[in-house]
Write a structure and sequence with these properties.
With 322 residues, the protein is α/β, with parallel strands linked by helices. 42% of the residues lie in helices and 20% in strands. It has ten helices and eleven strands. The longest helix is centred in the middle third of the chain and has 22 residues. The chain starts with a strand and ends with a helix. It binds 6-O-phosphono-beta-D-fructofuranose. 6-O-phosphono-beta-D-fructofuranose binds next to strand 6.
């Protein structure tokens, strides 16, 4: 069997580990792996080629994706999907391993239903916002990158007795923000899913900290639906309270860098498992981790509501920041 591998949506550290494992597991089972470049965009354009074992040498430790990636709104169009299926058919590719987030899985689900191509999903997004899995590739690396950056900011924040608002990524999801905030000992966190996420609440938390003698604070802000939210909150705080504060938007720094060992290991496990299941004739599933175990879910499950960061972690911040 020929098995295509593609990465789609925002790149995430650990994607290369998954590509490498899928390619090598395919080889071990007597299948031929093909690389599809630039995600669904490349699939539409027929940008595909055999992906031999040796092409995956020395990529385990590299961030980004050797297959490159794209966001591809044209794939919503059934006529475009039919063109994509034609490219696969001509190359003799019967199955696809799709590494990406919920948008990429939704596309895989409809593509399989409509065009009959067997699809397997591997969760790859720094947002960790997929239902049915407690982990996505890249989250652990992005979390550690954000924490390392904020540790540095902490030094200057405490030297100057300043307030810093630090924006982290997470499209409509506070998962990265909450975990980052706990791991770097932030004084407060703003994230869209929290009932306490309000300007007034933040001001009263900062006031309480000031009264306790804290002269510097770190507030982690999830970008949520509005990139630049930290800037807007900072402007308002300056206007209302005349504070000497600074804003840092960590941005795409969080998406790059060498994957952590954890992301490499899960990328390797999921890449190999996806191919093993395709080899057995399974289709229409995506892999995940629940309570430490590797699990598979039907692709349709991705349509369920996104996971919400644990409220208990969010509440811990106000206790630990005293
Ligand atoms: O989905 C991953 C992510 O990094 C989000 O956290 C962020 O909102 C978005 O991608 C940014 O996308 P882009 O790189 O296309 O601007």
């Amino acid at each position: 069997m020929k098995i295509g591998v593609l990465t789609s949506g925002g790149d995430a550290p650990g994607m290369n580990a998954a590509i490498r494992a899928a390619v090598r597991q395919a080889d071990a089972l007597g299948h031929e792996a093909w690389g599809i470049y630039r995600g669904y965009q490349g699939l539409l354009e027929g940008d595909l080629a055999p992906l031999p074992n040796r092409a995956c040498a020395n990529i385990l430790q590299r961030g980004g994706t050797i297959l490159q990636t794209a966001r591809c709104p044209q794939f919503h169009d059934p006529a475009q999907r039919a063109i994509a299926a034609g490219h696969l058919k001509r190359a003799g590719i019967e199955a696809l391993v799709v590494i990406g987030g919920d948008g990429s899985f939704r596309a895989a689900e409809v593509f399989q239903r409509e065009q009959g191509v067997a699809c397997a999903g591997i969760p790859g997004t720094i947002d960790n916002d997929l239902s049915g899995t407690e982990r996505t590739l890249g989250f652990d690396t992005a979390l550690n990158t954000a924490v390392e950056a904020i540790d540095r900011i902490r030094d200057t924040a405490s030297s100057h007795g300043r307030l810093f608002l630090i924006e982290v990524m997470g499209r409509s999801s506070g998962m990265l923000a909450v975990h980052t905030a706990v791991a770097c000992g932030a004084e407060a966190v703003l994230y869209p899913e929290s009932p306490e996420d309000s300007y007034e609440n933040l001001v009263s938390q900062l006031n309480a900290n000031w009264l306790r003698g804290k002269r510097s604070s770190i507030v982690v802000v999830a970008e949520g639906d509005t990139v630049g939210r930290a800037v807007a909150v900072g402007e308002r705080l300056k206007r209302d309270h005349d504070l000497d504060l600074r804003v840092v938007v960590l941005g795409h720094i969080q998406r790059g860098g060498s994957p952590t060992a954890t992301d490499r290991i899960w990328g390797s496990r999921w890449g190999a498992e996806a191919v093993r299941r395709l080899d057995k004739g399974e289709r229409g599933f995506y892999l995940g981790e629940v309570a430490g175990a590797l699990v598979a879910q039907p692709l349709s499950r991705v349509l369920e509501a996104q996971p919400v960061p644990p409220g208990e972690l969010g509440r811990l911040i106000s206790v630990l920041a005293r």
